[in-house]
């Protein structure tokens, strides 16, 4: 099992930036990828970005391409989501997920991002 703790959310004006962090602990050797999802009020959870745990390129949902950047620091077992040029429609609870080679995904508790217009 992998434990995930997100941080870095908050309130920001449109056009501003935030950096989310997701610290992983536990059986991180089983992780093959890390993903960020978000869920806005009244909407389904949406994929935002992912990155391979040991390498490989990142992928993004179209709505955040060019504005968000996912990165990782394997020495710290931490994944980041740098969010620039934030829009009110980016307001959501952001979750990180650890994708294992086999088995159940692990999820963090979520961190609230609110973008005011």
Mean pLDDT over the residues: 95
Main β-sheet description: 7 strands, mixed
Counting DSSP H or I runs of 4 or more residues, the number of helices is 0
Uncertain regions spanning at least 5 consecutive residues: none
SS elements, strand count:
11
Rg estimate, integer Å: 14 Å
The fraction of residues in strands falls at over 45%
Along the chain, the helix and strand elements come as: EEEEEEEEEEE
Name the assembly state.
single chain
Proportion of helical residues: under 10%
**Distance, first to last CA:** 39 Å
Query: Shape from CA axes?
Result: globular
Kindly list the characteristics that best describe this protein.
mainly beta; seven-stranded mixed beta sheet; 56% strand; globular
In short:
The protein is mainly β. The protein is built from no helices and eleven strands. The model has no long low-confidence stretch (mean pLDDT 95).
